[in-house]
TrEMBL record:
The keyword Transport applies. SUPFAM superfamilies: P-loop containing nucleoside triphosphate hydrolases. GO terms for molecular function: ATP binding. Residues 5-228 form the ABC transporter domain. The keyword rRNA processing does not apply. Pfam families: ABC_tran. PROSITE patterns: ABC_TRANSPORTER_1, ABC_TRANSPORTER_2. This is ABC transporter ATP-binding protein.
């Protein structure tokens, strides 16, 4: 399988006053194109930091991150912003929807950064909402939707630009078990049926079971030897 994400000797250190806090310690990791990977570990293990680095939301203190052979660790803030808009779809625990906008308008938001005309943005948003099972909720605002439906809107927004991969940070953390299972089944379908590479942080072992591989972090280091980690 083709390698999508290649990480070598990755470190991340934060400065907190006079104290340096090293969150990641020399991570080496490969993630294949088309995989569904769960990142697990105790609170403070560095899993969200690693996710943010892969998604270009943060920059490493040292080491290399290559996505499709492109070194994102060398990019400026402006270059990273452009790269994220083209390549990464984000799904967070809290849906981050605009309360005054309909589901369709929320899904269209990433397309405002493109050259697509309004009619095409509307069409693409409708396709994305249909894909997540919300074709009948396009005109509903977030407060008219359940938590699970709001997360589906967030997933539609994440995929509407057809990104290279999805970054999901505790996507079921704010949902009841039934809604969580629906969201995980949807993510699994996007991976299996539509070829989307997904990297998901979760603390829930049941959620991790939906992924193809699970990678464990503890105190900033990989634990064990997952198939994709070198």
């Amino acid at each position: 399988m083709k390698t999508l994400v290649s990480i070598r000797e990755l470190t991340k250190t934060y400065q907190r006053g006079p104290e340096k806090i090293e969150v990641l310690h020399g991570i080496d990791l490969d993630i294949a194109e088309g995989d569904f990977v769960a990142l697990m570990g105790p609170s403070g293990s560095g899993k969200t930091t690693l996710l943010n680095l892969i998604g270009g939301l943060d920059t490493p203190s040292g080491g290399e991150i290559s996505i499709e052979g492109e070194r994102i660790d060398r990019m400026s803030a402006g270059q990273l912003a452009t790269w994220r808009s083209r390549h990464v779809g984000f799904v967070f625990q809290f849906y981050n929807l605009m309360p005054m906008l309909t589901a369709q308008k929320n899904v269209e938001l990433p397309l405002l950064l493109t050259t697509l005309k309004a009619a095409q943005r509307k069409r693409n948003a409708g396709i994305a909402l249909q894909l997540v099972g919300l074709a009948d909720r396009t005109s509903h605002k977030p407060n008219e939707l359940s938590g699970g439906q709001q997360q589906r809107v967030a997933i539609a927004r994440a995929i509407v630009s057809d990104p290279t991969f999805l970054i999901c940070d505790e996507p079921t953390g704010d949902l009841d078990r039934h809604s969580a299972e629906e969201i995980l089944t949807l993510l699994q379908s996007l991976n299996r049926d539509h070829g989307k590479t997904i990297i998901m942080v979760t603390h829930d072992p049941k959620a991790a079971e939906y992924a193809s591989h699970t990678i464990h972090l503890d105190k900033g280091e990989l634990v064990g030897a997952p198939e994709l980690a070198h």
